Amino acid sequence: AFGAMSFDQDAEVAVEAFLNNKIRFSDIPRLVEAGLGGVDLKASSNITDLLDKDQQTRYYINCLLEKEFLC
Length: 71
Fold this sequence. Notes:
Blueprint: H1 2-19, H2 28-36, H3 47-67
């Protein structure tokens, strides 16, 4: 379930970056794909683990944005 959740966070951050003119529309799938590789996608057994992974995913994607994906 976290894999799908991670994809959602990646997509949310990527779309937000596009809407704020930080990336091009064509960069959205590339950023989402890159984000999926940055966080451990093992199954989580409790809500605390899920929330931690959510935070890690968002942090990782934002780091990618600052380093590689700026227009």
